[in-house]
């Protein structure tokens, strides 16, 4: 099972799969938008985003919208490539097991 060697453990979590799915199709998404879309708590979302940041798959930007802080996230080129490769591995796995 060659595909198992290429399985990216960073994406084992369905939450991280969801985060990357949102981030690869959008230029950037705010923390609150991600939280609402994926129905997560602040802490849960923050811990998964931190794991993706440490893998260099996402970056964040802090700014202000009026007087309120606004943190937005976007997938890096490295993250988009890793996610695409991971999806290909999943697709190959499904095809082999049909």
Main β-sheet: number of strands, strand sense, barrel status? Answer: 3 strands, antiparallel
Shape: elongated
Strand order of the largest sheet: 1-3-2
Strand fraction: 15-25%
Query: How many β strands by DSSP?
Result: 3
Q: On the 0-100 scale, what is the average pLDDT?
A: 92
* Total of helices: 5
Low-confidence stretches: none
Q: Supply the helix-strand structural class.
A: alpha+beta
Calculate the terminal CA-CA distance, rounded to whole Å: 14 Å
SSE series: HHEHHEEH
Specify the helix fraction band.
55-70%
Question: Any descriptors?
Answer:
3 strands; 3-stranded antiparallel beta sheet; 98 residues; alpha+beta; 5 helices
What's the short version?
The protein has 98 residues and is α+β, with helices and mostly antiparallel strands. 58% of the residues lie in helices and 18% in strands. It has a three-stranded antiparallel sheet with strand order 1-3-2.
Q: Can you characterise this structure?
A:
- This protein is 58% helix and 18% strand.
- The protein is built from five helices and three strands, in the order ααβααββα.
- β2 (58-65) and β3 form a beta hairpin.
- The model has no long low-confidence stretch (mean pLDDT 92).
SSE arrangement:
Elements lengths: L1 H5 L7 H11 L4 E2 H8 L3 H13 L3 E8 L2 E8 L1 H20 L2
Antiparallel strand pairs: 1-3, 2-3
